[in-house]
Amino acid sequence: MTNGATPKYTQPVDLLVATVSPERAAGFVNTCLEAAAFMQAAEPDLVFFPNRGAAPMLHAIQGANALDDIPCIEPLIGSAMSMNGGKGIDGGTKKAMLEEYILPGMHVGLMDESQHGGTIKQHRALATHITDNPVVTCQFQDDRISPRYCVGNGDTTRFFVGPLFHVDRNGFLDEIVIMDGERQLRRNTDAVRVFETLGGAITGPIAEVLLVGDQSPVLPPEQITAWVADFNAQGLSI
Questions:
Q1: Residue 180 near residue 205 (C-beta atoms within 8 A)
Q2: How far is residue 140's CA from residue 58's CA, in Å, rounded to a whole number?
Q3: CB under 8 Å to 32, separation ≥6 — which residues?
Q4: How many CB atoms lie within 10 A of CB 44?
Q5: Which run of H or E residues covers position 10?
């Protein structure tokens, strides 16, 4: 590392501790749990979290056991990584993939991260077209960006603004790869553990050993210990 360059952290625990303040990590969890409480009250038949971007939200919510009695699915409708780089999919293909889980007449929920808002607008419209019912929607807007589309706050919609530090950072995300023409999930199990552990703070202080899991951090142990202590001191407001 030269000229003050930021090192490239590949393990989720290193990436979290080195680049995300305990305050922003707690803010992320609080927003996820607030959204989960709204979704829980709506009692949809299922909730879909589009993978890749919404996966950390789902894992934090699962760590808090906040949607245990509502089925949650992760359709692979995010950008995949092929040998030639990122590969998106068209609306018709997304609709067909959603129809594997969502049926006409169902009442469904959607929880997703938002940058400019176009993708969540599309996913909501597709689910509405399939079900012919309003889609209970929680839009989690990145607080670093002003959206061009906002679902607003109504009977079936909530708009949240908070720290989406995981967006476009591969160390925090699963991979969607294309193999033999099919989209397949490569689960980032270390990231799952990190976000589930953060969500678990709703029941009390998190344990450093759970956050680290099977990872071999490059950061000094005392730096991780200090970060965990600061995170535990934040408390969760939900």
A1: no
A2: 12
A3: 57, 60, 61, 64, 66, 140, 199
A4: 21
A5: none
Shortest CA distance to 108 belongs to which of 39, 52, 36, 60?
A: 39
**Hey, what are 192's tokens?**
């799952």
Which tens digit of pLDDT belongs to each residue from 50-66?
998 999 999 999 999 99
Strands laid side by side in the 182-186 sheet: 85-87, 80-82, 175-179, 182-186
End-to-end CA distance of the chain: 41
H/E segment holding residue 75: none
Q: Which residues pair with 112 in a beta bridge?
A: 139
* Distance between CA atoms of residues 150 and 118, nearest Å: 9
User: CATH says 12-227 is which class?
Assistant: alpha beta
> At 85, is the pLDDT very low, low, confident or very high (cuts 50, 70, 90)?
low
The pLDDT tens digits of the residues spanning 209-218 come to 999 999 999 9
What are the C-alpha distances in Å from 76 to residues 97, 179, 182?
A: 8, 14, 11
Write down the domain spans for the chain: 12-227
Give the integer Cα–Cα distance in Å for 87 and 75: 15
CA distances, 105 to each of 88, 97, 135 (Å): 28, 17, 11
What pTM did the predictor assign? 0.91
Amino acid at 208: E
Q: Quote the distance between the C-alpha of residue 228 and its chain's center.
A: 21
Q: Which residues contact 173 (CB under 8 A, 6 or more apart)?
A: 52, 53, 55, 56, 166, 188, 191
